[in-house]
Amino acid sequence: MKSGIVYSNFVTTVSPTYAGEIKYTNEGYGLGHTLHVHQEKFGGILNGVDYDIWNPETDRHIPYRYGRDNLDVKYGNKEVLRHRFLLKNDYKPVIAYIGRLDHQKGVHLIKHAIFYALDHGCQFVLLGSSPDHEISNYFWNLKHHLNNNPDCHLEIGYDEELSHLIYAGSDMIIVPSLFEPCGLTQLIAMKYGTVPVVRDTGGLRDTVFDADHAQKPFNERNGYVFHDFNNEGLESALHRAIGMWYAYPEHFRELMENGMRYDLSWKHPGEHYLNIYEYIREK
């Protein structure tokens, strides 16, 4: 890897913040100094989402297609999601997790989020699997434990078609990662008007701007962010997100629309990569 960095024409990673993290923290696994020496040919470019596949206006995997102009149609997908998972049709937000179940993804925080959500007037849906036998067994046992709970469903495994329905039918999605080079989950969720609750790291920092504390005007804020990689940190963000859903639904809807307004396709990253190739060609 070090030789690749030294002899390459340019080195990229998939978000600007993660580029800084691997250069200046132990996430560089000993290569931080090498990246610093070669920083003139090192940078981070955010990943993009293929809107031909992930777009609620054209998505063939969801029963009700919608966009910013007819956002209320989204709630038809919420009803279908509840029906599929035998959840109670009640006035509650649906919080989701989609992805791997491992330490990097904050598995202990995912566990905590399930019970925190259920204790605070929410429903929770999970779609995920783990290569770790112990973690997998824990979630299978938890699935059996919560099997008759009308506010929770855990789907162990991965089903891309089902993930489309969960993105479309949920109100919020959690991404409590220890580290995250970019993250696609939050990018897809925002396109579907599903508000992300994320930890402040890597590409999550570059794409999710806190509803209460971001240094941006409200019309550019699109989610909730927490810093500490522990239960208290997660609760600090979930508490605010759930509170806004119940107490200020019009403001929560603005967050949904703000996220949908961002262009997180490959258009801008593609332009950045072209600029890099031009930089290399001219050297």
What does this structure look like?
- The chain has 283 residues and is of the alpha/beta class.
- The chain has two domains: 2-47 and 266-282, no CATH class; 68-261, Glycogen Phosphorylase B (Rossmann fold).
- The protein is 45% helix and 13% strand.
- The two termini are 23 Å apart.
- 41% of the residues are buried.
What's the short story on this structure?
The protein folds into two domains: 2-47 and 266-282, no CATH class; 68-261, Rossmann fold, CATH 3.40.50. Helix content is 45%, strand content 13%. The protein has helices spanning 2-7, 16-24, 32-37, 74-85, 107-119, 133-145, 160-169, 185-191, 202-207, 231-247, 249-261, 267-282; strands at 11-13, 42-44, 94-100, 123-129, 152-156, 172-175, 195-199, 224-226.
